[in-house]
Q: What sequence folds into this?
């Protein structure tokens, strides 16, 4: 499946924004890992995709370099104000639903 086909599929599933990314352009910042350690999102040490289970910053960067490009997906929503927690949670749930739907469709292709 081509990158363009993956992008089209992601758009069809319902992501608000979809785009290609060159892996070589990604920066793995210790500041982001520090935010994880402070547990701002309440997921630290609770999810396999979050630290420390996901590996060190160096391990993640090394794994990413095995690829040349990727696809970024995003779900957005219009909030009533900066504290519109309900809308944030709904957008988070939609992001998860869209993501798992995309993964399922991609698995069917391979």
A:
């Amino acid at each position: 499946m081509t990158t363009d086909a993956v992008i089209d599929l992601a758009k069809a599933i319902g992501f608000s924004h979809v785009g290609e990314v060159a892996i070589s352009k990604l920066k793995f910042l210790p500041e982001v890992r520090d935010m994880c350690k402070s547990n701002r999102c309440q997921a630290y040490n609770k999810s396999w995709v979050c630290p420390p289970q996901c590996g060190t910053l160096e391990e993640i960067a090394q794994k990413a370099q095995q690829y040349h490009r990727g696809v970024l997906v995003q779900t957005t929503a219009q909030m009533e104000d900066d504290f519109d927690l309900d809308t944030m949670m709904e957008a988070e749930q939609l992001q998860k639903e869209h993501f798992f739907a995309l993964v399922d469709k991609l698995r069917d292709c391979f």
Observations:
- The chain has four helices and two strands.
- The longest strand covers residues 17-22.
- The helical segments are 3-13, 30-37, 57-64, 85-109.
